[in-house]
Amino acid sequence: MMPEIGNGLLCLALGIALLLSVYPLWGVARGDARMMASSRLFAWLLFMSVAGAFLVLVNAFVVNDFTVTYVASNSNTQLPVWYRVAATWGAHEGSLLLWVLLMSGWTFAVAIFSQRIPLDIVARVLAIMGMVSVGFLLFILFTSNPFSRTLPNFPIEGRDLNPLLQDPGLIFHPPLLYMGYVGFSVAFAFAIASLLSGRLDSTYARFYSSVDAGGVDLLDARHCARFRMGLLRTRLGRLVVLGSGRKRLVYAVAGGDCADALTGGH
């Protein structure tokens, strides 16, 4: 029953994201302040529905619900509970759900902390972030659903979490990585909103630069966690190549330069 609730919450989130993508923009076109202000309510509802679905998946791992294909493929009864929780984002389907959770969290954060920004800009920004969420939710529901069942023939024991991922750093590494990456969607949304409105107001330029700097800081923290994991595995005789870090460094440097440019170098 619980996996069906999680799947239903994802469907609800998709409907809310669609409303967030369309209704506030309609309000901007009509000059209707109430329709534009509804974007903040939709952002809150989107976050709550995705968070509910994520908690359902965490619960499925904690109680060893092997009727869920994703749980049976990435956990077992012998796995410590903290690794079972971390296994929620340990593979493809769960990591996508974590991505959407953080995306909705950033959307909600923009809705809360954008009180000084003109309402039409807020409506555009949240609508664009809603469109991005729609794309990810459609991808999850139709190609990578973490709530797919193994019924009627389900195993009494799961496989296991990937041994390479059984490290305390895993609990912090992916969330930090995704929070940094997904944070740049706020930058994207502000850029598109600025193009649509034809102006770049200094108030929301400062807001954007703060978010951008936060995303860079999260990527830096993620590098520390990954470096620690690499050292531990090297001691175990397994050399972990961190070449993909160069790609993240490009994001961090570009984001830092952009934030510096928006604040005038101060």
Automatic annotation (TrEMBL):
<feature type="transmembrane region" description="Helical">
    <location>
        <begin position="96"/>
        <end position="114"/>
    </location>
</feature>
<dbReference type="Pfam" id="PF01578">
    <property type="entry name" value="Cytochrom_C_asm"/>
</dbReference>
<feature type="transmembrane region" description="Helical">
    <location>
        <begin position="41"/>
        <end position="62"/>
    </location>
</feature>
<dbReference type="GO" id="GO:0017004">
    <property type="term" value="P:cytochrome complex assembly"/>
</dbReference>
<dbReference type="InterPro" id="IPR003568">
    <property type="entry name" value="Cyt_c_biogenesis_CcmF"/>
</dbReference>
<comment type="similarity">
    <text>Belongs to the CcmF/CycK/Ccl1/NrfE/CcsA family.</text>
</comment>
<dbReference type="GO" id="GO:0015232">
    <property type="term" value="F:heme transmembrane transporter activity"/>
</dbReference>
<protein>
    <submittedName>
        <fullName>Cytochrome c heme lyase subunit CcmF</fullName>
    </submittedName>
</protein>
<feature type="transmembrane region" description="Helical">
    <location>
        <begin position="121"/>
        <end position="142"/>
    </location>
</feature>
<comment type="function">
    <text>Required for the biogenesis of c-type cytochromes. Possible subunit of a heme lyase.</text>
</comment>
<feature type="transmembrane region" description="Helical">
    <location>
        <begin position="176"/>
        <end position="196"/>
    </location>
</feature>
<keyword id="KW-1003">Cell membrane</keyword>
<keyword id="KW-0812">Transmembrane</keyword>
<dbReference type="GO" id="GO:0020037">
    <property type="term" value="F:heme binding"/>
</dbReference>
<keyword id="KW-0456">Lyase</keyword>
<feature type="transmembrane region" description="Helical">
    <location>
        <begin position="6"/>
        <end position="29"/>
    </location>
</feature>
<feature type="domain" description="Cytochrome c assembly protein">
    <location>
        <begin position="89"/>
        <end position="197"/>
    </location>
</feature>
<dbReference type="InterPro" id="IPR003567">
    <property type="entry name" value="Cyt_c_biogenesis"/>
</dbReference>
<keyword id="KW-0472">Membrane</keyword>
<dbReference type="InterPro" id="IPR002541">
    <property type="entry name" value="Cyt_c_assembly"/>
</dbReference>
<keyword id="KW-0997">Cell inner membrane</keyword>
<dbReference type="GO" id="GO:0005886">
    <property type="term" value="C:plasma membrane"/>
</dbReference>
<dbReference type="GO" id="GO:0016829">
    <property type="term" value="F:lyase activity"/>
</dbReference>
<keyword id="KW-0201">Cytochrome c-type biogenesis</keyword>
<keyword id="KW-1133">Transmembrane helix</keyword>
